[in-house]
Amino acid sequence: MLFAYYFIHLRAAQIPIKHCDKILKHLEKPVKDPNGFTKNQQNVLTSIFESEYYSFISKLSKKVKGKFVIDSVSGNSGFILYLENGDWVLSYLKNKQLLYKCGSGKPTEKITARMFSKEYGDRSSPSPHNFPYADESNHIASEIEHSHGNRITGLAIGADSFNFCFTEGMELETMLIPDKKGRLSLSVFWEQW
Asked: pLDDT at position 34, please?
């Protein structure tokens, strides 16, 4: 099932979420507003659903849904999930968005180079910026390894990034946030939703 959810993406867009007065760690279930979406949140969701980005990313769901992740590689600006049938999907930063490229067999050097862009920062250390999980160090490879052996059930799409969803409510949560030097960087967390 393809869906967009609001919790992290709207917080990242600096839209207040009610009843979220504590800092979440990435394996905690979020507290959701029992009263539903505010008008402002509904407007943001509508803009996501109507965006070219949403239209582009939603095509990926058909290519990955139901497939198991068997391996992965990562860099500072992206990662590749290797799937059970010999296919792969590259998620990488470009133009301040998380994009994707799919293929099968061994990815070319041109493809894998997209994971190591000097244009983007390094989120392996905690960031002083006020974003979800910014106070935690982020080792992308370790987080993605949790997806190995798990089946992709869909995607969650935000304004500038998307998550791979897995069975039992798990996700590879991706966020674009500044690193400790203020450079836009990729964060990836294995988390419960």
From this structure: 56
Kindly give the parts of the chain with pLDDT less than 50: 1-24
Q: Report the number of secondary-structure helices (H) and strands (E) in the chain.
A: 5, 9
For the full predicted model, state whether its pTM sits above 0.90. Answer: no
With 0-12 CB in 10 A as exposed, 13-18 as middle and 19+ as buried, what is 44?
A: buried
Q: How far is CA 59 from the centre of its chain?
A: 16
Write down the domain spans for the chain: 2-192
The predicted pLDDT at position 33 comes to: 62
**Nearest alpha carbon to residue 9 among 131, 109, 180:** 131
For residue 13, count CB atoms less than 10 angstroms from its CB and return exposed for 0-12, middle for 13-18, buried for 19 or more. Answer: middle
| Residue type present at position 167 | T
First-last CA distance in the chain: 15
Q: With b meaning 16 or more CB within 10 Å and e meaning fewer, what string describes 158-171?
A: bbbbbbbbbeeebb
Distance CA 172, CA 164 (A): 5
Beta bridge partners of 92: 78, 99
